[in-house]
Amino acid sequence: MKRLMSIKNLGVNDIPIAGGKAANLGELTSAGFEVPPGFVLTTESFDYYLKYNKLKDFIADALSGLDMSSDAALQDASGKIRKAFEEGEMPKDLESSVIEEYKKLGKGKFPLVAVRSSATAEDLPTASFAGQQDTYLNVSGPESLLKSVKRCWASLFTPRALAYRVSKNFEHDKVKLAVVVQRMVNSDISGIMFTIDPNSELPHIIIEAGYGLGEALVGGKVTPDTYVVDKFHRKILNRRISNQTWKLVRGESGECMKEDIPADLASKQKMTDEQILDLAEIGNQIEMHYDRPMDIEWAMEGGNVYIVQARPVTTLSKDKNDKAGKAEEKIESSRTILVKGLGASPGKASGPVRIYQEDMSLDVVKKGDIMVTQMTTPDMVPAMTRTSAIITDEGGMTCHAAIVARELGIPCIVGANNATEVLKNGMEVTVHGQTGVVYEGLDKEDRPASTPVAAMAPSAPVTGTKIMVNVGVPQKAEEYAQLPVQGVGLMRIEFLFTSYIQEHPCALIEQGRERELVEKLSQGIATVAKAFYPRPIILRTSDFKTNEYRDMKGGAKYEPKEQNPMIGWRGCSRYVSESYRDAFLAELKAIKRARDEMGLTNVWMMLPFVRTVEEVVKIERLMNDVGLFRGNDFKLYLMAEVPVIVFMAEEFAEHCDGFSIGSNDLTQLTMGADRDSDILGRMGYFDERNVAIKRAIAHLIKHAHNKGVPVGICGQAPSVYPEFCEFLVRAGIDSISLNADTVLKTISYVAAAEQRMVLESIRKQK
Ligand code: PEP
Ligand code: MG
What we know:
Elements: E1 4-6, H1 15-30, E2 38-41, H2 43-52, H3 55-63, H4 71-87, H5 92-105, E3 112-119, H6 124-133, E4 135-140, H7 142-154, H8 159-167, E5 177-183, E6 189-194, E7 204-211, H9 214-218, E8 225-230, E9 235-240, E10 246-250, E11 256-260, H10 263-266, H11 273-290, E12 294-301, E13 304-312, H12 324-333, E14 337-340, E15 342-345, E16 348-356, E17 370-373, H13 381-384, E18 389-392, H14 400-408, E19 412-414, H15 419-422, E20 428-432, E21 437-440, E22 466-471, H16 477-480, E23 488-492, H17 494-501, H18 505-510, H19 514-532, E24 537-540, H20 546-550, H21 572-575, H22 578-597, E25 603-607, H23 613-625, E26 636-640, H24 644-647, H25 649-653, E27 658-661, H26 663-671, H27 678-683, H28 691-706, E28 711-713, H29 717-720, H30 724-731, E29 735-739, H31 743-765
Parallel strand pairs: 16-17, 17-18, 18-19, 22-23, 22-29, 23-24, 24-25, 25-26, 26-27, 27-28, 28-29
Antiparallel strand pairs: 1-2, 2-5, 3-4, 3-5, 6-7, 6-12, 7-8, 8-9, 10-11, 12-13, 14-21, 15-19, 16-20, 20-21
Helix pairs in contact: 3-4, 4-7, 6-8, 17-19, 19-22, 30-31
The structure holds phosphoenolpyruvate and magnesium ion (MG).
Phosphoenolpyruvate (PEP) is lined by residues 398, 403, 490, 492, 543, 641, 662-665, 714-715.
């Protein structure tokens, strides 16, 4: 490892030695963005300095037996350590190489530089306070450069940083800091930029801009202008002009000083519209490079824009890259954690715990309860609709509880191990569905569990990719129909069984109640189809697994016990077997009735868990027997879930009007990872973003398109990971069907991805 490295030779992989700030600056430089040149003293330099001055033992001595609860003792120890750092001797060889690199920045002379601490990944929380304090601007000459470097290092030992590390059991000698030395930009205007609105998460670029050096603005000392730019349409949506009465400037001898701003300039818009839009475009490009929303610091000197820092926005609600540590910080400051699991459906809810066991009556679950159970089953759905949150001991991100909760718009935690033991009936708890944490006590700030999704709808960008919505319980159809979607990409008929029927279909048929079954199913279908008419609804015929059907009233007689129901008698394999055929015919008759008798010709059909071409051929014959014929206004989709469809796309394409990727099952079967397994989920085996899944999807799209057949997706992947849309759009997906709660946000991702593709192709043509 090198003690000094030039910024331009760094990339994001160098965070462990160069720290986040320096590594990102290197990444940006290589990607062609304007970054002031500079170099970094890596963590190796830090170690070298520490060793050379025997500071390790000194620090250990200063901290041994320290009473952390005593502020005076802490201040004292911190002062001693920092003094030792600042007064230490720079090893001669390190000193001369620093000065040599420094001179290069000024083409032989000593230029003005900024000296900035750059924290390594492990000590980010610690160094984040250091990071704020330890930027030295307008540093000039070798002596003050070396002094500033030492001061940066010493800043790892401020009283706050020490106390924080102790509270987190973080070993002091594991903490390292890199230091960036960078040519100073003498900015006329500077500021920050977010490539997403971090509060609303709308696709807006938020720019804050003020006169002078950026430090005053970043430190919150002056109020900047704020501009909101529409990410897609190069349009300024909003501007708030501040009254900036002073600015930070470079003084005669390089020092930072305050300077008053004349009244006429103080209240003027700080940047021209053209500059705002150009800056927003740079933000777009940076986001494109990193493939995620970014938080950027920039500076403008003589009309040129320089990027002085860029890091991913980590506060987004769906940001799965957000480190668990963030959640722990919140936990530490406020409350007691009772249980932790996988955050499967976002949102917060408070209420009394209701432990539910399989043999109980659903009536025990009351409105507003937090339902805690081993695992939910389809027959529990009516009770689930009354709960304000759901917690399960078992299950992964696409298990039954997760899917239903997202559909209902309520928070859900799955795979919480022993929640049914730790939580007790009546306990008042708060569930955080994103972080997967259950806290003791009620949270007064909760928003109501179900904000109508469409009520949040601003005008959505128009996308080339069709956006559809997944609908479960028919009661939600009217509300979801308000969303800017082009139809329903997945309506699971199972929800009709659980909402309207609640008995095993074979039992009903055996009792001579087939008409009732058809009638109820068609009513449920009609409820959704009417709400969306004339937009199509793709109704998926049943895909219960044997274990789920057994739990239905009268189910035990018809459902064999299987070792692996997930890869057992489900989907199409049922329709072509004697023992289920009549029940499937009832589903077909219900579709026929909704279409022909109720005039809802927007009902299309989709087959789940397709394994062979032969079964599709047989099923189409059954459809024809009840009078359902594929044609212009009646389309048959096949779900692409079993990898066989990917490998035999051309053959299957002969027998359908479209494919819809069931990424939940496709991931399960490609990875060989049971989607219900909390163990595998936690270990990261079940992840739709795996390159193999992406290749499978891209392959299917390519081969289906060769046959002129469209491909959509209706699994959870784009709802859980909106950034997955970038890949889907680039792979040429025709439609994306989403959970209602993620439609608006995900449309933005799709629009952004499409816009990037257009920009890229324009750039290529130039
Ligand atoms: C899927 O497998 O992705 C899918 C949408 O179907 P289900 O989750 O109902 O199995
Ligand atoms: Mg599936």
